[in-house]
Amino acid sequence: MAEEQSLRPAEPVSIEEENTWKTQALVIGGVVGALLGVASAFLYVRSAEETHGPDRPTPPNTGDAVRMGVSLLGIIRTVTEWGQQRD
Asked: How far apart are CA 78 and CA 74, in angstroms?
């Protein structure tokens, strides 16, 4: 009986089931990204207040922005590599 079940071809996956994992990945990625963005902004504001008090801090310069961009590209590359992994 168990052999008969294992010999049956797999049932085709519906389009709804196919898109479910994609939607789930996009929603989770969006929520995690938003939470990390808010947490980063909170830490930036807190650090600036501790250092400068009520005065507005000087904005990050171009070099700082480029360094952050390169760091983010590294993170994006890592996440992309996760999608290329096989079981």
From this structure: 6
Secondary structure tally for the chain: helices H, strands E: 3, 0
Residue 1 has what DSSP assignment? -
Nearest of 50, 44, 36 to residue 64 by alpha carbon: 44
- Token pair belonging to 5: 């079940």
The pLDDT tens digits of the residues spanning 17-60 come to 778 889 999 999 999 999 999 999 999 999 999 999 989 999 99
pTM listed for this prediction: 0.68
Where in 3-87 does DSSP place strands (E)?
none
Q: How far is CA 32 from CA 27, 36, 62, 71, 77, in A?
A: 9, 6, 26, 17, 17
